[in-house]
Amino acid sequence: MRIVFATKFLSGIAGGAERSLIRLAGGMNARGHEVSIINYDKRPDPPYYPVPPDVPVVSLHPKAEAYARCVDPIADAAGRTKPDPGTVRPGPRRAKRWLRQIELKISPLRRLTAAVRSRAVTDRVADYLAAERPDVVVAFLPHMAFEVSRAAARLPRIPSVLALRNTPEFDFAEPEDDPARAVKSRTVRDALHRFDRLTVLVPDYAELLPATLRSRTVCIPNDVPVADYARIQAIPLAERPRTIAFVGRLVDYKRPRSLIAAFALVAAAHPGWNLVFYGEGPERPAMEADIKRHGLEDRVKLSGTTTSIDQAYAQAQIFCLPSLYEGFPRALSEAMASGLACLGHSDCVGVRHLLDGGAGRLVAPDLRSTGLGAALDDLMADGASRHALARAATERIAQYQPEMVFDRWESLFSELTAQAVPGRFGSVRSGAVSRYRSQQSETG
Fold this sequence. Notes:
Elements lengths: L1 E5 L9 H15 L3 E6 L17 E3 L4 H6 L20 H16 L1 H11 L1 H14 L3 E5 L4 H9 L6 E4 L4 H4 L7 H13 L5 E4 L2 H4 L10 E3 L10 H4 L9 E5 L8 H11 L7 E5 L5 H10 L6 E3 L6 H6 L3 E4 L8 H8 L3 E5 L3 H7 L5 E3 L6 H12 L1 H15 L4 H18 L12 H12 L1
């Protein structure tokens, strides 16, 4: 089969969803399928995670090739530098905010403006699909779902799949203080019916989708390469540093600041323990201020991103992910495979799905993080509890072996291609085939 995966951005992003995409693409490629990944990165820097050499990554952005040729990394194709964000006048931003609020209230206007804004991307996706003629196209994450759904609709012979990578509560959230995100969420939701299949990571997520879509929704979890962590799992917890690890983006919905607050409540009772964060994000300045305020500069470390994440697990005994929203948290699953004692908040469906039933410690969230602090206090004080949770975690996560997960994806693709209606592919705009063929040969 020829399979195309589409995601809006991939260059340099160290996210769990991006890692899952690259693993899935590599898994399908290893099974003999012809796989490619398309994105819309203006600056086609390499993906953060290594991509198999036989899987081309193609940016459809019209300036991608020009950016690749630029000597100055902040110059655009015309040689102009980008404006300093501090010099942008607030007037246009207020106008855009007002327009987004109008779009939320008037559905026909929202659909029209979305079609206009996405026309260039949709055209280029349609060109690529018509040129490559894949058997199936997968929109990985909702960011490019609207464009992929409209492009695939022009080419009725190509089945389309939308892979949702978080809980629908997060993917389709419409925050009142962020009209732009609310409009994007509503726009993607408007496009769901165009896909032949939707995939979710946890069975409970299907119940959060509209009833009309549930019959075409399939649950396929992330794969967890347990064998890759066997070496770490073999290291006894007692021989690892007394460290609590957090791995993920430093964003508000992952609640990293609540972990600092919880650790601050019990740190004095456990002087031999430290807390280490791996990841970057907009919460970092506030976290640095929290660490300083609690006087924990010598106990809490913000290590940034790392390309050796397995070493992060090898250097810890406890893993904590206090997120509000997670799909099927890859960092947590890897920590479980590495034999760490894991804990998180019970109000996060993705975390609860992995840790429920004794595979980890689940704590009800509270404003002062006292519950999380008490759970950390118990685990830091009780080595037997840490060992018991670590053992239960490794047993639970073993059911998500890559072969089982890739079998499900392959079965879904085979089912869709068998049901595809034979017909003509859509027309290709002038130069589309040669342009994308050339770009693929350069990236290969």
